Amino acid sequence: QVQLVESGGGSVQAGGSLRLSCAASGVATSTVCMGWFRATPGKGREGIATIDTFGRTNYVDSVKGRFTIAKDNAKNTLYLQMNSLKPEDAAMYYCAARSSTYCRDFVGFGAWGQGTQVTVSS
């Protein structure tokens, strides 16, 4: 059974940084596409970054140059480094896994974590 557990959320001032982690079990991060999503009551769920088994990454335009997705396959953990945070980045952040070595935009993710909350004050 796949289990994804996010951590690292919290409250930060605009311009600050946070690093989110997602510990995976029941699936090897080296073998599947992994991604980060975020959700707010007003905007719904948004895909923000993916990384495939070849290390190729993809980002939504709004976070390019500020966020970095990475993974440590030895630790079976996915990360999201978030810099220059803006109030509009405030959301519940989720990691997810897709049963493929390739990522296809932000679709096809079948395993999800419970989320970690990020709050950004102006």
Task: Characterise this structure.
With 122 residues, the protein is mainly beta. The chain is built from no helices and 11 strands. It has strands at 3-7, 10-13, 18-25, 33-40, 44-51, 57-59, 67-72, 77-82, 91-98, 109-112, 116-121. β4 (33-40) and β5 (44-51) form a beta hairpin.
Write a compact overview of the structure shown.
This protein has 122 residues and is mostly beta strands. Helix content is 0%, strand content 54%.
**Oligomer status:** single chain
Question: Given the C-alpha coordinates, what overall shape results?
Answer: globular
Give the biggest beta sheet: 7 strands, mixed
Overall mean confidence score, pLDDT: 97
Pattern of helices and strands: EEEEEEEEEEE
* Binned strand content: over 45%
Uncertain residue segments:
none
The structural class is: mainly beta
Count the E strands: 11
In helices, the fraction of residues equals under 10%
Number of helices: 0
Rg from C-alpha positions? Answer: 13 Å
N-end to C-end Cα span? 40 Å
Topology:
Blueprint: E1 3-7, E2 10-13, E3 18-25, E4 33-40, E5 44-51, E6 57-59, E7 67-72, E8 77-82, E9 91-98, E10 109-112, E11 116-121
Parallel strand pairs: 2-11
Antiparallel strand pairs: 1-3, 3-8, 4-5, 4-9, 5-6, 7-8, 9-10, 9-11
Which terms would index this structure?
122 residues; mainly beta; seven-stranded mixed β-sheet; four-stranded antiparallel β-sheet; 0% helix
